Amino acid sequence: MNIKITYNWLLEYLDTDANPYDIQKYLSLSGPSVEKVEKVDDDYVFDIEITSNRIDTASIIGIAQECVAILPQFGKKAELKFNPLDEYRFSRIPDGGTDCLKVKITSPKLCSRFTMIVLSDLEIRSAPQFIKERLVLCGIKSINNVVDISNYLMLSLGQPTHIFDFNKIKNLTMIMRESLKGEKITTLDEKEITLPGGDIVIEDGEGKLIDLCGIMGGLNSSISEKTKNVILFVQTYNKQLIRKTSMTTGQRTVAATYFEKGLDEERVETTLTYGVELLKQYAGGKIASKLYDIYPHPYKQKRISLKTDDLNRLIGVDIKKEILEKIISRLNFELTSFKGNSMTVTVPSYRQYDINIKEDLVEEIARIYGYHNLPNNLPPPAYVKQPKEMENLFKIQSKIKYFLKHAGLNESTNYSMISMEMIESLDLKVTDHLKLSNSISSDIEYLRTSLIPSLIRNIKSNEGKRDALRFFEIAKVYLPKKLSLPGEKYKLAIAINTEFGDLKGLIEILLAELNIDNYEIKKGKNSLMNPSVQGEIYVNGESLGSFGVLKSKYRIKNQLENDVYLAEFDLDILIKNYRLVAPYKPINPFAVIKLDLTFATINKMPFAVFRQKAFKTSKLLQKIELIGIYENKVSLRFFFSSTVRNINQEEAEKELEKFKALVLG
Amino acid sequence: MDEAIKKLHHDFIDQLSHIKSLSQIESIRIDYLGRQGKINGLFKKINEVPVNQRKIYGQNLNVLKKDVSRLIEDKLKELAESEEKERYVDTTLPGKKYQKGSLHPLTLAIEEVSSIFEKIGFIRVSYPEVEWEHFSFEALNMPKGHPARDDFETFFIDQAEDDKYGKVVLSPHTSSGQTREMHRVKTPPIKMINIAKCYRPNWDVSHAPMFFQFEGLCIDKGINITHLKGTIDYFVKEFYGQERQSRLRPFHFQFTEPSFEVDISCSLCHGKGEIKKQKCRMCKSGWLELGGAGMVHPNVLKAGGIDHQEYTGWAFGWGVERVFMMKENLNIEDMRILYSGDIRFLEQF
C-alpha cells in the first residue's frame, strides 16, 4: 500500500536538517520507498510505499521514527521533538463518566483490544484550516470536523478509528459478533452489502447491524450535521477476518488496508487519548462516559538475542560494536545486554509482529548500516551437477525450437488453461481435465491435456491475416491422477493450414535433424484427426504421436475456413532418441544412375510397403525420392549404384522392371 | 610456305570477326591453338620447308601463334564486357521468398537468462507447475491464513486435499522449486536457476493469468548479502550492459530475511532522474524496479532439510516478461498480447 504525508506535518514530530529530497533519497535506500515528492505551495507531499510487515510506518509518527533511524547514517540530524506514543496515555483522560453502554464481544478471536469513550455536546462544523489542508494534500476529502479528526488520527498515528452517533445506538447496546451468511448492512457509502458470513460486525441488540467492523460503519449510526453526542471507537481486529470480508465484499477501504495487516494494540491507547483531545479542542466535546478498554492479553515485552558472529556471517562484513549500538538505539530497540559477542534487545510494541527471529534483527541492522555500503562479490565457485534429464530437456528443446523456426514456423505460447467450449468443440471429455476451482474467466477454466485445441484457436484467430499459417508450441500438458499431482508431460505440437505434404516434410526433416531414422509409420488413432488421413509414428517401437488432418466435423464446428494439418508428439520420446550425429557412412565413389517411374495406382499399396519390398528386391537400390503427386499418380526417382564397381544403364533398367512387377503383382 | 601462314592468318581474322558468343570462342581456340589445331599442323610441316628457310618459317609461325592467342584474349574480353553491359538486375527488388519463422520473445529471454547464469555455475532445473500448497506456501514460511494463499491471489485446483501437503494449486511463483531443489540436492552447494510458468488470478492490461518467472537460489557455507549483491550486479551488467548499476533496497517477503527490492539504474538518465534539468520520462528518480530478492529464511532452509546453523543462502524471483521488456524497450502496452497467438505479433521476433 502507499500513503501520502506532508513534509511540514512530519516536522511537527521530527527535528531534522534534511530537506524533502534528502528524505526521499535516504529513506528509499534504507527504509520505505519514497516514490514521489511533490511541492505544493510551501509544503511537500511524499508518496510512500509501505511494505505489508511495516504497517507501523504508514503514519506521520512511523515515518518520523524511520527518519530517526536512517538519516544520521547519512550525516543528517534527526530526532523526535516529542513522542506521542509516550505522551498520549490514558492517564491524560480525566475520569468521571458513567457506564452507559452495554458491550458484549462474543469471541475473543474477533478483537484483540476494544476501546471506546462517549463525548457529548459536540458541534459539527468545518475542521480547522490546518487539518483540512493537510488531509487534502494527503488525498483525503474534508467533510466536517468530526470525520476529519478521525482521518487525521489515522494518518498521524496509523490507527483507524470510527465515530458513531451515540443517539442512534438503540438500547445502548453493542454486541460484537460474527455475521451470519446473508445478513445485510448498509454502509456509510449507502451501499447495501450482503455479508458472506463470519465477518466482524456490531449489532444493536435487536438484530440490526450498525458497523461492518474495520471496514466501514453503518449508515444507520453515522454522524450527521445534527449529531450532538458521539462514541469514539478504537479497536484492533483479527486481520484475517478483516481481509476476507474486505476482499469478498469488494469494500477495499483505507481502514481495511490498515486492519488487515495487524495493528499494534498499544497504539490504541495513544490514538484514543489523542482523539479525545482533538474532539474536545476542535468540536467542543465533553467526556460523557467511562473509558471502555477490553484488552485480554496486554503486550508483554519481547526479547531477541543475536550473536555478532551470526550477524557478520549473514551481512558479510564486520560491523563495529559502537556502530551497532547506535543503530540499535536509533531503531528504538533497547540493548539489555551485550556480553562478548552476544547481545539481547527488547522489541518495541509496534514491531512485535514483524520482529520474531534473529534474522529479523539482522535485517534491521543491515538496512540501517546501508546495503549500499556492502561490496559486490560473486559466490565462491562450486560445481553443481545438472541432472542429465534436465540438461537434455532444455538443450534438445532449444534445438527443436530453433530448427522449426528456421523451417519457417512461428512459435506460439498459449495459456495452459482452456475453456469448456474448446474442449467440447473437439468432443474431448471435460472430466479428463483438471478444473480450476476459482477461475476468473470461463476462457481459462481447465488445464489442457493436449496442445492441439490451443493451436486450432491460433489458426482460427489468424485466418485472413496471412494465407499460410504454420504454428508450433512446446509446452506441458497436465494429466490428472487420483490423489496426487497430475502428470506434467512436455508435448510438441504443430498446426498448419497449407497442405498435408508440408506437414509430412516438416516431420521428416525434424526427425532427420535429430538423427532419428529408425522410425515407422502405422495407422493413426487420434480422435481429432480424419482416420484415413493420419499416421502414428513409432520410434524403436514406442509411439511418438500422431499427425494428420483435423476431422471435417471439427473444422466445421470450429468454423475454420481451411483444413488444418496437425501433429502432436511426446517431447521425451524425441529427447530419448536424439543423437548428436548419425553414424558416418563412407562416400561411395561409384557411378549413380537415376531412373524415374510414375505409378498409376500406388495408393493400393502404401508407399512404406512398396519401399520395403523394393529394397528387398534390388541390391543396387540406394535411395527413393518422391518427385511429385498428381491426382492418383505418384512419380518416384530411384537411385542405383554398387559399392564395388560402376554399373551401367541396362542393369539399372532391369531393376526398375522388377519394381513395376511389384506394384502390378 | 609463307603463303600458308598468311592464309591461315587471314582465315582466322575472318572467322574471329563472325564470332558472337563465348562458346564459339572456345571452338575457334581449339581449332587454331589446340594440340591438333591448324597452327600445330603448320609446325608439323616444317620438314617440308627448305633448311635455310626453316628458321624464318618457325619465327613467322610463332608470331602467328602469339597473334592468334592475343586476338582470342581480346575477343574474350570484348565479349565478356558486352555481356556484362547487357545484363541488369534491380538489386533493390525483393529476393526469393523464404519463410523466416519466429521464436516467441519469451523463449529468447529465457535462453539469454539461463546462459548468463550457466557461466557462473548455476544449473537450470524444472519443477511442477501444478503444485501442493505445501511447496508453494508452508515450505516458504507462509502459513495458513497468509494473504497470498487466498482465493484472490492463487488459483486452486478442484481436487481433494492431501493430509500432508494440502490443496493443489497452480504455482503462483517459481519459489515453490526452492525446497524441492534442497530435497533433491540434500547437501549444499546449491546453485539453481528455475524458469517456469506461474499463475495468478489477475487478467488486465498489465497482468496475464499466466506468466514466466526465473528464480535464482544459492546455498552454501558462508553465503552472505555481498554474494547476492555481486550476483545481481553481474546479471545486470551482462543482461543490460556494463554501464548499468544495481542497488538493493529494503523490502518484505515471507521467505527471505532480510528481503530486498532490486533496482537498476535507468538507461535513459543513467540513475540521475533527470535529463537536461527535465524529469526523466522513463524512471522514478533514476532507478527502475527489477524485482525481489533476499537471504533464504531459516524456516525455508528447515523445510528443505538444510541445517540453517551451518548453511546460508540467497534467492531471487523475477518476472521474465518485465526483465526482458526493460532490456529491449519493447514497450508492450498490453501484456496479454504475449499469449494471444497473433501472427502479426509473433512474426516480429
Give a description of the structure.
The complex is a heterodimer of chains A (665) and B (349). By secondary structure, chain A is an alpha+beta fold. Chain A has 5 domains: 2-82, Phenylalanyl-tRNA Synthetase, Chain B, domain 1 (2-Layer Sandwich); 90-294, 3-Layer(bba) Sandwich (Phenylalanyl-tRNA Synthetase, Chain B, domain 3), CATH 3.50.40.10; 304-371, Phenylalanyl-tRNA Synthetase, Chain B, domain 1; 388-577, Bira Bifunctional Protein, Domain 2 (BirA Bifunctional Protein, domain 2, 2-Layer Sandwich), CATH 3.30.930; 593-664, 2-Layer Sandwich (Alpha-Beta Plaits). Chain A is 31% helix and 27% strand. In chain A, helix 5 crosses helix 6, helix 6 (145-157) packs antiparallel against helix 9 and helix 11 (321-330) crosses helix 12 (358-369). The longest helix of chain A is centred in the middle third of the chain and has 19 residues, at 388-406. The mean pLDDT of chain A is 95. Chain B has 2 domains: 2-86, no CATH class; 105-346, Bira Bifunctional Protein, Domain 2 (BirA Bifunctional Protein, domain 2). In chain B, strands 1-4-5-11-10-7-6 form a 7-stranded mixed beta sheet. The longest helix of chain B has 36 residues, at 51-86. The mean pLDDT of chain B is 92. Chains A and B meet through helix 2, strand 3, helix 7, helix 10 and helix 12 of A and helix 5, strand 1, strand 2, strand 4 and strand 5 of B.
